[in-house]
C-alpha cells in the first residue's frame, strides 16, 4: 500500500518564475491585415528570413510509440495490469500525444500540468522556459476504476480500446480530483449547457483524472481509408524538407474549401515570396478528430479537398494535405492557441487565422459564443507562441462584378456578396448551385452528394455526433 501513496504525490513545481513578456497592443484591420508575430508591430521589426524548419517545442519532437522489437513484450505487460477502457476521444488524444503534437508533453497530464494549462495556457519547463499549452489533455476515471488501480498495487495501468486490445501503458501514474466545473469554465469561458465536447466527453466523465508517461504499443490507425493522410509531425517535417521548403504556412479548417479560402492561401504564398522566401509550402490541415453533428464528416471533406487540388484551385506542387488528429473543442481563443502550437511541432512557422477561429454559436443564446476578433489578437500575445508568425485573414467575399471570390473592397460594398456557411449548406442541401466562381465545380458536387446521402439515409436528418 505504501507504493500507492505515489499515485497522489504531486509533481514538483519549479520555483523559476514565468518570464514577463512585453505586451504589444495591436490593431487589426478587417480588410488588409499585415503579417504579425508576437512582440512585433506591423510596421517595425520585420520577420526574419531563415532557412530550415522551426524547432519543436522543448527542442525535441516527442515520440511515444514503442519500437517494433519491444511491442510483443509490452502487450504481455499490459495484459497483467489494471485496465482503463478508452473512448474514441481518449484514443484520439493518445494518437495526438504519441506522435508529438503536444511536445514536450510525454503523456496524459498530471495535476501540475493540468493546473498550469487551465490557469496560464502554458507550461513552465525545467529550464524555466515556457511553451504554450491551452487545452487540458487528460484521462478520466471513476471511483470503481480508481479502487481497482489501488488494489492492483502497481504504478502502471494499461489503456485498452473498445475491443479490449492493449493500446498503451501509462507509467508512474498520478491520480487527482477532476473538478469538471472549473475545467469547463476555464476552457470555454461558460458553463452553459449544449457545448458539444463537454456533452460528449466531460459531463458523464469520472470524478478523477489519471496522468503519467505513455508508452504507445503501436501507431494509432483507424482503418477508414484515410490513414495515408494522417502524417505525423516527423513525417510532415520530412516531407517539407524533401520539398526544400524554407517557410511552411498552416491553414486549419473543418469545412469544405471554397475559392475564398483558396484566394487567401495563394495570396499568402505570393506575399511570402515577396518577403524573400524561395519556396513557401502550404500545409492544408483539416481537423480529423471529434466534431459536432452538423459539421461535414471528415471522409467527405477529404474528398472535397482532393477535388480542389484536382481542379487546380490549389497547386499540388506546393501544397501538403494532411489530417490533424486532434478532437475539436469549439473553445475559441483558448483552443486556437492549441491549434497553432501543434503546428509548430509539425514544422510550420506561419499560421493563418481567420474570423472567430475554433468558435461556435452560443449554445443557448442567439449570438456567437466568442468575439470574432479575439482569436487572432490572443494568438499575437499568447505565451509560448513567440516564434510563430500569425497571419490574420483578409476578408474575402463574392465579387458580383467580376463573378469570383475577391478580397473585400470597402469602397464598393454593394458589389460584394457574403455567403455564410449556413447559406452554403442550404444551397447544397437544396441542390442549388452557388454563384459561378464561389467553389470549384468538382468540390461543389462532393458537397451536394454528401447532403443527398443524408436525405437518402435518414430523410434529411443530421446524424448523431461522430468522431470524424
Percent strand equals 15-25%
Tally of strands: 16
Specify the biggest β-sheet.
Answer: 6 strands, mixed
Residue ranges: pLDDT <50 for 5 or more in a row? 1-6, 8-46, 463-468
Q: Helix content range of the residues, please? A: 25-40%
Structural class determined from secondary elements: alpha/beta
Broad shape: globular
In angstroms, what is the radius of gyration? 23 Å
H/E series: EHEHHEEEHEEHHEHEHEHEHEHEEEEHH
Mean pLDDT: 89
Number of helices: 13
User: Distance between the terminal alpha carbons, to the nearest Å?
Assistant: 42 Å
What's this model, at a glance?
The protein has 468 residues and is α/β, with parallel strands linked by helices. The chain has helices at residues 71-79, 88-99, 111-120, 143-152, 180-188, 196-202, 233-242, 259-275, 298-310, 332-345, 374-381, 421-429, 441-458; strands at 36-37, 83-85, 122-124, 130-132, 140-141, 157-160, 166-177, 208-216, 247-253, 280-286, 319-321, 350-353, 389-392, 396-399, 404-407, 416-417.
Write the layout of secondary structure elements.
Elements: E1 36-37, H1 71-79, E2 83-85, H2 88-99, H3 111-120, E3 122-124, E4 130-132, E5 140-141, H4 143-152, E6 157-160, E7 166-177, H5 180-188, H6 196-202, E8 208-216, H7 233-242, E9 247-253, H8 259-275, E10 280-286, H9 298-310, E11 319-321, H10 332-345, E12 350-353, H11 374-381, E13 389-392, E14 396-399, E15 404-407, E16 416-417, H12 421-429, H13 441-458
Parallel strand pairs: 2-6, 9-10, 9-12, 10-11, 12-13
Antiparallel strand pairs: 1-13, 3-4, 5-8, 6-7, 7-8, 14-15, 14-16
Helix pairs in contact: 9-13, 10-11
